[in-house]
Design goal:
Oligomer: single chain
Number of strands: 15
Order of helices and strands: HHEHEHEEEEEEEEEEEEEH
Mean pLDDT: 75
CATH architecture: Alpha-Beta Horseshoe
Number of helices: 5
Length: 260
Amino acid sequence: MDKNPSSSKWRILSSLAAHKSFTQHSVLRLPRELSPCHGVVRRRRAVLLLVVVVLVAGAVAAAADMAGDRAALLALRDASLRGAVPVGTVGNLTALRTLSLRTNAISGGVPADIGGCVQLRSLNLSGNRLAGRLPEGLFSLALLEKVDLSGNRLNGGVSPEFSRLASLTTLNLDRNGFNGTLPGNLMLPKLAQFNVSYNGQLGGAVPASLTGMPASAFLGTALCGGPLAPCANPSPPSPGGSKGVREEEEDRRERCGPHL
C-alpha cells in the first residue's frame, strides 16, 4: 500500500499527461463524492478513481464546444492532492482547455510548465497553498479567458504582463499576498470580473482601466481612487518651502564669509 496517497495520484496524472489520446480527446473528473475525503473511501484504502471519457465531435450535444475543438478538461476538486505539482504533469497537456485543481492542498508554486497548455481557456487553482510569484509561462497563454488563483499564498507584484491576455474576462487574485501597486497600464478590454481584495500590501491608485469595478473587488487593501475613497493629494509645498534663494545665499555667507 502506498503510504502517500497524494503521491500516487500525481503519478497517475503524470502518466495520463504523457498519453497522447488523453491530451487530445478526453475529459477527466474526480467527483466530490469519490474523493478520498468522503464516505467509505476515506475509511478504507485511499483510492483515486479516474474516469476517462473519450469525446467524439458532435456525439454529445452538451460537450459540443469541447469536442469540436478536440480539447480536454481536467477537474480534480477536493481530491486531497498535496505537495507540489510534479514537473511534466501539466505542461504536457497541450490540448487542455480547462484545468481545475481547486480546493486541494497543493503547495509550491503555480506549475512552471503551465505555458505548455497552449489551448487553455480556464484555469482554477483557488483554495490551495500555492506560494511565490507567477511563472512567466502563464502570460503566454493567449487564449485564457478565466483565471482564478484566489485563496492561496502567492506574492510579488501584480504583473503588467496580464495585459498580454487580451481574451481574459475573469481574473481573481483575492486573498493572497500580492504587494506593490496595480500596473497603471493594465489593459484587459474584455475583463468583466476582477478581484484583488484582501491583499493587504497592495496600495496606490486603482488604474483607470479598473475604475468601473465594484469597491468589493478592492476591499482589504490600501488602494484608493476609482470606486474607493479618493487618493490623498500630495502635500503642497509649504509657503516658504523652497527655503528661498535668498535664505540659501544668506546661509552660505554666514558659513563662508562676506567675500564670496
